Amino acid sequence: MGSEATAEATSNREKAARKDFLSGLACSQAVLAAFADRYDLSRECALRLAAAFEGGTGMQGDTCGALVGVYLVLGLEYGGIDPEDLGAKQLTAEKVNEATRLFKECNKGRRTCCELLGCDISTDEGLNEALRRELFQRRCPAFVRDAVRIAEQLLEERYQSSTSC
Predict the structure, then answer these.
(1) In Å, how far are 52, 84, 110, 153 from 139, measured between CA atoms?
(2) Among the listed residues 45, 21, 34, 51, the one whose alpha carbon sits nearest the alpha carbon of residue 148
(3) CA 110, 111, 116: angle at the middle one, nearest 5?
(4) CB-based contacts of 50: which residues, under 8 Å, 6+ apart?
(5) How far separated are the first and last CA of the chain, in Å rounded?
(6) Is the CB of residue 74 less than 8 Å from the CB of residue 99?
(7) pTM given for the model
(8) Which of 46, 165, 68 is nearest to 112 (CA)?
(9) Backbone torsions φ then ψ of 101, nearest 5 degrees
(10) Cβ proximity of 101 and 161 under 8 Å
(11) Which of 115, 15, 29 is CA-nearest to residue 72?
(12) In contact, 143 and 107? CB cutoff 8 Å
């Protein structure tokens, strides 16, 4: 697949993830579902696997669910199934660390929902503030976009252009 075809596929994945997120799915679900076809993973299975990571893992405000969606994709792509395959473990960890670095680069050094949204959504007060200010609708689509672009970049070794946030 040439870089033009890769860019088109990325665009299609971005569009699908954005549409899913704006329809009400969690950011983690939107990201993983955008890549499910690559792994012959059913949409239902992808949505169930990623459901717990909304709002920074169960609305705790920790690592952004969109970024966790990237981690899940990287696990599917690079993760080993042999407990003695240290190479697969190392490669997966390297890709996860690179995804985190790229995501933070796109988002002013931030990776948690609390940091990204500017309020602690793990509390009723912080969640109400985020809802009142429509932060999930206003900010999170960009995090989903960044996550899909990062996943595509890390999946395609030949597609090494810089990530545009």
Answers:
(1) 20, 41, 13, 22
(2) 34
(3) 65
(4) 26, 28, 29, 31, 32, 33, 65, 68, 69, 72
(5) 23
(6) yes
(7) 0.90
(8) 68
(9) -60, -45
(10) no
(11) 29
(12) yes
- Cβ distance 135 to 116 under 8 Å? no
Tokens standing for 97? Answer: 């660390």
Q: Tokens 């169930």 map to which residue?
A: 48
Burial of 117 (0-12, 13-18, 19+ CB in 10 A): buried
Q: What is the pLDDT of residue 5?
A: 57
- Give me the average pLDDT of each 10-residue run along the chain (165 residues): 54 94 98 97 98 97 98 96 95 96 97 98 97 97 97 74 55
Q: How many CA atoms lie within 13 A of 96 on its CB side?
A: 16
